[in-house]
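Here is an idea for our session: we take a single protein and study its fold together. Start from the sequence, derive the backbone structure tokens from it, and show both lines together. Once you have written the record down, we can walk along the chain together:
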Amino acid sequence: MKTAMVLMMAVMVFVGLSAAAFGEEIRTLNISESDWPPYNFLAKPGAPKGIIKEIFEMCVPPSEYRLKFEFYPVKRMFTYLEEGKIDMNVLSYKKRTRILSGLWKRTDVRQRIPSGHACRKKYSDQHASGF
């Protein structure tokens, strides 16, 4: 009985040790996006997320970061990057799209995520059937 009480107390302590318990804010990761199907779709009613957003959501811990995707025109996006108003961008160019399209067709998705990357196992487990 005493062991069970100690074990229960230990579990309660570990569960209570979260960012919210210490009053820390969840930081926002501001990401500029573009309409780049099938990798990324702008937020339109009924539109799918796209693989880029899915990978971000799997790799970024929700307890530490809130993802905020927004579209900006290219000139404003570069200005905001320089000013630190956005943290990163997801942008496509015709040449890059051609290269990536060829890569996505030739390789398995598990090969595209680095082997030591934290989200590789999560992604592989969720998409075991492949594309």
In short: Strands lie at 27-33, 65-71, 88-89. Residues 23-126 form a domain with the D-Maltodextrin-Binding Protein; domain 2 fold (CATH 3.40.190). Residues 59 and 117 are 9 Å apart (CA to CA). The mean pLDDT is 67.
